[in-house]
Amino acid sequence: MKVIKKISDYKTLISQIQKIMETVVHKAGSRGHANHGWLESHHTFSFAGYNNPERMNFGVLRVLNDDKVVGGRGFGTHPHDNMEIISIPLSGDLEHKDSIGTHGIIKEGEIQVMSAGTGVFHSEYNKDAEVPVAFLQIWLFPNEQGVTPRYDQQSIKELEKPNEFYQILSPNKNDDGVWIHQDAYFHMGKFEGNTEAIYEMKNPNNGLYVFVIYGELFVGDQELISRDGMGIVAQEIINFKFKTNTHVLLMEVSMV
Q1: What phi-psi label fits residue 12: left (phi over 0), alpha (psi between -120 and 50 degrees) or beta?
Q2: How confident is the model at residue 10 (pLDDT cuts 50, 70, 90)?
Q3: In CATH terms, is domain 22-253 a member of 2.60.120.10?
Q4: What is the pTM of this model?
Q5: Which phi and psi angles does 158 have, rounded to 5°?
Q6: Mean of the pLDDT values across residues 154-182?
Q7: Domain map (residue ranges) of the chain
């Protein structure tokens, strides 16, 4: 056992302990996995048959599912309540139908949000009979219970800025992207290799969850590759260095 003899060594140790406590890394291969034939899903947090007590949520971020549905299949009509549900297609066309009268197609370059509130039924299907649809399904606990169910869908292509983070979701109705009932801000970014960027927290009490859609980057000195995730708390400015062409999703969320 190493004996600490100098104040500087003690401070270094404390800094290292704090750093460990303030970050969590979820490697792609450590996620829960389910293959139902028509659906292949990877679960960052506990979901359905994947139950990991150490992977229940990150603050109000409850579900982060990486789903792929074969042509012509999907999720039949099922209920939700008191949850903010976000879908982000990565490829293909996702058909949505719900009990509040919404029926539409969500495509790559769009984002969908549904505030389940007092209760809503919906279904999600792959619109194409031949081509799989891949999408991220994200659930956040709301900051208000029993709201009137609502649905929104927007294109985010025109918000995209090369080598910059751009906002796709917030708590504010007049901001870029969709809005939800929660102190949360989502940003996406597509970066070329050998570029750098910073993200400054909107609320210093929030946490930031980084999900790599594809590519390779460093968050501080932590290397992440495709489908890795990393949660960060107690940091107001986060530094990114991109090794290769990278597509990344940032989810700033309330931790309480």
Answers
A1: alpha
A2: very low
A3: yes
A4: 0.91
A5: -75, -10
A6: 96
A7: 22-253
